[in-house]
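Same chain as my last thread, 315 residues:
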Amino acid sequence: MTFDVRLAVVALSTFALASAAGSVVATLSAKRPRSDSPAAHARVLFRLRILPAAVAVAAMAQGILSFVVFEPRSEQEAIGVVLMALAAFGVALYALATARWARVTMATNRVLRTWMRTATPLTLPGVDVPSFAIDVAFPVVAVVGILRPRVVVARQVLAHSSPAELRAIVAHERRHLENRDNTRRAIMACLPDPLSITHFGQSLTARWHEAAEQAADDAADEDSPNGRCDLAAALLNVARLSAGQPAVCLPASALYRGEDLERRVRRLVAGPAPPPLPSAPLLHRLAGSASLLIAGGLALRAMHEVVEAAVTYLP
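reply #2:
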């Protein structure tokens, strides 16, 4: 087997194995109870969800680099069935992720084209991205798009919401923009890892969605002391407007998707949001990343020896 083919098999099999290991770690870690603020909880869930793919990409990069540096080009080694099967699994993970990306992209573009036919520009205070009022049966309020985000608001929401309710709605959507929740949602929808084909992976994404919505809800009282109650009233109003209408399935940060609102409304009217936990200083995060890169470079020889043992001894 030529050097290039061996390199491809090593890269794909390393990715598949590391992705599976990362999925196990993420699954076990996600089952631990947490009492963080919604914003901190959403960050943790997002990191856990991308952990398998991040670990897999890092392991694959290290495997490729160690193979390129230490593997002789002239040898013609045979690779066993186990590594070939792992490489095939890696190809399948990438293929499924690509298919999900294509499906999500086409669905989003199709819905957006329909909405923008009736869209008129809208000015929303504090929102620095294009905003539009649209004609749609379901009372949509959403941030759509990643590279060119825009805010869309159904006309019936504008017509049936008080100024205070609209102010709370805008604060909610503005927080989604600040947190780049659309980017996070798109990344999680297209991850090439085993969690993407399991019920637990879907559950983890749903938990992130709930935490992200609560974190956006907490922005409502930044513009008004009664903002949380105003947002609760807006949610109930939107739910009333949606009666009898099919929900819109869209990978976007939406105010309401047709879900049960009881828990969310009760949380809003219960009192002020808990203070956010401080995140690690940037210097500490940079130092941690640099340490990982240095450790990875020092482990290149050991990585190649592990790959050589796998090629030699696995059937």
